[in-house]
Amino acid sequence: MVPLILTLLFFFLLSSSPAISTNYEGNALHALRTRLSDPTNVLQSWDPTLVNPCTWFHVSCDSQNHVIRLDLGNSNVTGQLGPEIGELQHLQYLELYRNNFEGKIPEELGNLKNLVSMDLYDNSFEGGIPKSFAKLKSLRFLRLNNNKLTGSIPRELASLSSLKVFDVSNNDICGTIPIDGPFSSFPLQSFDNNSRLNGPELQGLVPYDFGC
Ligand SMILES: *[C@@H]1O[C@H](CO)[C@@H](O)[C@H](O)[C@H]1NC(C)=O
Question: Ligand 1 pocket, 203 CB below 6 A?
Fold first, then answer.
């Protein structure tokens, strides 16, 4: 029989170790990696046997070893972004611009409550802009330009009062442009080159997507 004191010590170490408490973030990142093709080995340092992902290249952590940045801009990465990204609850900066990400933008991104910046521009994302982005109350920068996105701009995004920069230019967005909240100050260039996008919605009219 293991003496009780050893058993207690074991559980104490288990519960107090920062390595174990953040391991889920390493697991989530590793799961993301398995979906991607990485021809120039940018993700080579992503070793899931390490106690946490904080020493991996392109990953940054805070003092509690929680992942707060993912910097994979310009990294020649190809493939789909998996739902695991939504497990990185402490993430503030998601920088995936200028790669070849394809497929849908996961709605799980709406779970990243601390996100300040989401840069997905210059990829091949398709499908709609998730309505779940309306939960990202800290979001200041949302750049989705130069992809293959379709559907309308979710009206729910007008509630994002921290949003300073929004860009969906060069996609295939349709419908009308919201005019409420932060949308009152975005320049029209943010919406350029979406051939099926009509102008700003009309004040006082209930927004209506014309078969969009
Ligand atoms: C991406 O690929 C190009 C061409 O193969 C290469 O020159 C460049 O260094 C790669 N970038 C990275 C970050 O590995």
Answer: no
- Which residue owns the Cα nearest ligand 1 atom 7? 40
174-197 pLDDT, tens per residue? Answer: 999 999 999 999 999 999 999 999
The answer to pTM > 0.85 is: yes
Contact 42 CB / ligand 1 (< 6 Å): yes
Q: How far apart are the first and last CA of the chain?
A: 68
Cβ of 76 below 6 Å from ligand 1: yes
pLDDT digits (tens, 9 = 90+) for 23-75: 899 999 999 999 999 999 999 999 999 999 999 999 999 999 999 999 999 99
Region at 91 (left for phi over 0; alpha for psi -120 to 50; beta for the rest): beta
Complete domains list, the chain, with CATH: 59-200 (3.80.10.10)
Rg from Cα positions in the chain = 20
Query: What's the number of CA atoms in the CB half-sphere (13 Å) around residue 99?
Result: 26
Beta bridge partners of 80: 102
Whether the CB of 49 sits within 6 Å of ligand 1: no
Instruction: Return the ligand 1 atom nearest residue 74 CA.
Output: 13
The residue whose CA is least distant from atom 13 of ligand 1 is: 75
